[in-house]
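Notes continue from the previous slide.

Worked example: a multi-chain complex. Inputs as given:
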Amino acid sequence: MSLSAKDLKELYRIILLIRRFEETAFEMALQGAYDNYHGGMGQEANPAGVCYGLRQTDRTMITHRGLGVLIARGVSVKDIFAGLYAKEESPTRGRIPVYHMAEPNLGVLGGTSMVGSVIPLAVGSALATRLEGKDDVTVSFFGDGAVNRGDFHEGVNLASVRKLPIVFFCENNFYAKSVPLAESTAGGSIVARAESYGIPGECIDGNDVIAVHETVQTAIARARAGEGPTLIECETYRWTPHSTAGDREFARTEEELVQWKAKCPVLRLEKQLLKEGHMTEELLHTVDEAIKKEVTEAVSFAEGAPYAAADVAFENVYV
Amino acid sequence: MTIMTYAQALNGAHSIAMKDDPLVFAIGQDIGSYGGYYGVTAGLLETFGKERVLDTPISEIAITGASVGAAVVGTRPILEIGFVDFVGTCWDQIFNQAAKFCYMSGGQARVPMVIRMACGAGLAYGVHHSQSLEAWFTHIPGLKVVMPSTPIDAKGLLLSAIEDDNPVIFLEHKFLYNQQGEVPDGPYRIPIGKAHIARKGKDVTIVAWSRAVHWALATAEELANDGIDCEVVDLRTLSPLDEATVAHSVEKTGRVVVCHEACLTGGFGAEIVARVTEKFFDSLEAPPVRVAAPDIPVPSSRPLENEYLRPERRLSDAVRNLNAVSHRRI
């Protein structure tokens, strides 16, 4: 299931779109356009690599650092910026943080604010798939901070004993907000926990979008075939603070950031595309210009869009 | 009609719903061959198999979250949490996830699930198996809260709860599981959000739910001998509250006592009294009264537990005293 030149070009467009989105979303938060942003810059290979090749009926949930997943599943940056600005035009209608945005028609079930609480929800989605007799797969995104929650342990255990069609995808960026992995996670390894739950585990370079894609595709094939869950640990790094809301950096150092920036997931794919002759500098530039225009237009749209009328706050409390 | 227990009536509702709709499934600890803590799911495993009657690990977070996730994508889970006292272990999945998904998704996602939990004291089960925590759930917009008092209501309300597209908290009183009553054999629904006049009367309104309805009815019989005619309103559903039925009764009697097994402070009785006072003050001939358990954990020994259950014994005097008061248009 290796990626064709066409696939690689599309993957590049997606990862670059996520990068340009992240840059702008972070910058606009710093400018005070909205209260806060939990940036995912540096981790773009994860949403892009995981979601590329998913069926529309496969399901994912997002995390508080998960807006790249929305983009990779086909939600427009216009809708997402409208969500960040909390305007009515967004699927959130401005009533909830954008990190909870749901687009069920695109396979996005939503997200939550409690780290890891999406894991049992994703397990339930996988449970339902089997009850419905379908072979769709659910991918549960979470960060390294989630693996010490009961939600993780209970969810992975339940999925394993019932051999559910789910992929547990951990974006390990080595810090749960300010606390380093070594100080929070016993045993020192996330992927090692797979063995204790009797499921396969893979630890991969999370800045290599092709490796991410291929590893996830293998896990998805297992899940579709009824062979149960897989735990994938993806090592990566966020380039920005936990959030823009005045978060201080304690353990993270400038040296560490420089080292990780040298492993930029976007540049890495770009270099490969050039080297293999799939793209030219000129073509890369054209793609980038189109993406920048899309992002700029999305911001203008969101800025100009109206807030929802007061009565919207009262809708959908019950069906 | 068949004479059956509250537990059997609930079992019948499961069978009907699961036969009708292949997307309805039961999930919980020991609900399979064991049949649930109180036998409510007895025999379902044999009829519907392991894929639809899921015996789970002791993982309340996972099974509650998984039920929410499964409901969001279109199935209809009936989750059993053996005791409402255990709800703290999975509370996040209920009040942050189940209750808010519809709102968060702008109505695109629904959470058609039922969470069945046993509540209440009377069996000397102690502090972690005897509480009445219904007020917690009523405080959360997005949840419906149902508390049947009889076998016939248990079946009809559970069928409505399973078919409801919202998350429904279904609280069953453990003291009532063996109570018998006539129950229609086939499917029928009792609407959620509608209270029931369990006894008509003109002097004093007693508002109650779950087991306290039986205390109210016994009290009403006792006081009828003394010429006090009580009307008993069985709320059946706490959220959404059938304010109209309560108001109609209070307008008629001018006197209201709310009786519940939960502790007094922050109990749902406070909400009823507040609403009646705010909106129907002019109908009142006397100040509303709450008869509730004392603010203590539920103790274990029979005599001590009996102290907790004092509303049963105090209701009669409370109604009698209230009936003697008249402050009309004070």
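Summary box: Residues 196-324 of chain B form a domain with the Rossmann fold fold (CATH 3.40.50.920). The CA atoms of residues 43 and 211 of chain B lie 27 Å apart.
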